[in-house]
Automatic annotation (TrEMBL):
InterPro entries, per the entry: DinF-like, MATE_fam
Cellular localization per UniProt: Membrane
PANTHER family from the UniProt entry: PROTEIN DETOXIFICATION, PROTEIN DETOXIFICATION 44, CHLOROPLASTIC-RELATED
Species name: Nicotiana tabacum
Domain of life: Eukaryota
Name of the protein this chain belongs to: Protein DETOXIFICATION
One Pfam family named in its UniProt record: MatE
GO molecular function: antiporter activity; xenobiotic transmembrane transporter activity
Lineage, top ranks: Eukaryota, Viridiplantae, Streptophyta, Embryophyta, Tracheophyta
GO CC annotation, single: membrane
Membrane-crossing residue ranges in chain numbering: 174-198, 246-268, 275-294, 314-339, 351-373, 393-414, 426-449, 461-480, 487-508
């Protein structure tokens, strides 16, 4: 342990200095930089593909009518909210656990191969030492006829290359089982509770929006098992540092959704139900592709239930569940407070919020890369790589945030008319733009910190720190929204993200928890 701690602290005089480590080489495509790029770029594209497909989905539904569009919007919000609570803990825990187990498995296999190699070399040396005399050797040399015969016999055999052995990753099997169970539970919950859930969201039974909203939500819920399963498998692939396979599957599924939407909606005249059916089919297509690819890499049949380590999964998953609820509640409360200000304020807030959240997907790509690489490095106790990886992704996060701030500050000012033509809404969007743009570096840091802490399997700290942040943020939201209205909400959200980034900084910056080696 001590031998591995020394190298990582040679250039790190204090934990805080990790943020400035090799800062001049931030864009250098060395081995680590290339690995981050290989993981982050496909991950970001895969995360972006779904929202793009949803926008296309919404556009098609908009051709049916505004009532259907509004109804589907509420149904999607309900479905996404239910999915997010289950998805985020499952994917995050799976990525870290799979990366750890895969690294440990590879290390043990390498050690075993080294032992076999040493044993073979020892046997070869022993044979050379015990070789018979020349006369004895000559007597053992076969005649020409027998040599030819043996050569013919040897040539009659075909050389068969052994197939690569499948990996044995307990967390992969556990993730799939948990994902399937959660998916079935979610589907049953949403189908049975569609009417009361939609009523809670403001759609009264018997209203014009009621039937299309219920139809869409119930049909869309049939795809919940596929959604949970596919995301669990994405977590497995991320643990293997393979984000290209999930990208391929996601793009294939989303393209199928876009193609099937007009067919089911307009050719078969199924309307809103057709949109839901198309989406469900696309989700199952994604699951099939990922499952097929995963079967080629991993032995998914566990020898026993103990092998799956459900307790470890559920314990850490519960911690992240607490965290997700805290995060979701803050954003939902902000939207609720904006809605109380009036439809104009809510429309402007919704546009700004969607842009604000959508840009986080790019930072999530860096977070995924950091998590996967760090989980492997911690499993190997390679603290030098831990330090280098954390430094690199955090520095890249700041750069990404600055680029997004500049892009949104200019682009959203001129592009706001894409979302609405209402003068009052545009005025409020213009007020929100400085907050949306200026907070991008903070947002990116916060999301990358999440990946860093998850990579260190510091789930308990992530949960409790987020819970603390949420408590303070809720107080700020309530006070500032009542005092300053629309602007107050954005000020409170800025404070919320700042506290979130500060909480992420807490572990590395103080050199505590998994990062205590920075102080040694």
């Amino acid at each position: 342990m001590a031998e591995k701690e020394v190298p990582c602290t040679e250039n790190v005089k204090s934990p805080v200095s990790i943020f400035f480590r090799d800062i001049r080489s931030i864009f250098k495509l060395d081995e680590l930089g290339q690995e981050i790029a290989r993981i982050a770029l496909p991950a970001a594209l895969a995360l972006t593909a779904d929202p793009v497909a949803s926008l296309v989905d919404t556009a098609f539904i908009g051709h049916i009518g505004p009532i259907e569009q509004a109804a589907v919007g509420v149904s999607i919000a309900v479905f996404n909210q239910a999915s997010k609570i289950a998805i985020f803990p499952l994917v995050s825990v799976t990525t870290s656990f799979v990366a750890e187990e895969d690294t440990i498995t590879k290390a043990s296999q390498d050690l075993q191969n080294d032992k076999i190699k040493e044993q073979n070399e020892g046997d070869a040396e022993a044979m050379d030492t015990d070789s018979p005399s020349n006369s004895e050797s000559k007597s053992l040399i076969p005649k020409n006829g027998s040599v030819c015969k043996s050569e013919k016999m040897a040539s009659s055999f075909e050389v068969v290359k052994p197939k690569p052995e499948k990996r044995h990753i307990p967390s992969a099997s556990a993730a799939l089982i948990i994902g399937a169970v959660l998916g079935i539970i979610q589907a049953a919950f949403l189908i049975a509770g569609a009417k009361p859930l939609l009523k809670f969201m403001g759609i009264k039974p018997g209203s014009a929006m009621s039937k299309p909203a219920e139809d869409y939500l119930r049909l869309r819920s049939l795809g919940a098992p596929a959604v949970l399963l596919s995301l669990a498998m994405q977590g497995v692939f991320r643990g293997f540092k393979d984000t290209k396979t999930p990208l391929f599957a996601t793009v294939a599924g989303d393209l199928a959704n876009i193609i099937l939407d007009p067919i089911f909606m307009f050719v078969f005249h199924l309307g809103v139900r057709g949109a839901a059916i198309a989406h469900v089919i696309s989700q199952y297509l994604i699951s099939v592709i990922l499952f097929w690819r995963l079967m080629e890499k991993v032995d998914l049949v566990p020898p026993s239930l103990k092998y799956l380590q459900f307790a470890r999964f559920l314990t850490n998953g519960f911690l992240l569940l607490v965290r997700v609820i805290a995060v979701t509640f803050c954003v939902t409360l902000a939207a609720s407070l904006a809605a109380r200000l009036g439809p104009t304020q809510m429309a402007a807030f919704q546009v700004c919020l969607q842009v604000w959240l959508a840009t986080s997907l790019l930072a999530d790509g860096l977070a995924v890369a950091g998590q996967a690489i760090l989980a492997s490095a911690f499993a190997q106790e390679d603290f030098s790589r831990c330090t280098a990886t954390a430094s690199k992704v955090l520095q890249l996060g700041v750069v990404l945030g600055l680029v997004l701030a500049l892009t949104l500050g200019v682009g959203l000012h001129y592009g706001a008319r894409v979302f609405t033509q209402d003068v009052d809404v545009l005025h409020l969007i213009a007020i929100g733009i400085p907050f949306v743009a200026a907070t991008q570096p903070i947002n990116c840091l916060a999301f990358v910190f999440d990946g860093v802490n998850f990579g260190a399997s510091d789930f308990a700290y992530s949960a409790y720190s987020m819970l603390t942040v949420a408590i303070f943020s809720i107080v700020f939201l309530l006070i500032l929204s009542s005092s300053f209205g629309y602007i107050g909400i954005w000020v409170a959200l800025t404070i919320y993200m700042s506290l979130r980034a500060l909480a992420g900084f807490g572990r590395i910056g103080t050199g505590t928890g998994p990062w205590k080696f920075l102080r040694s």
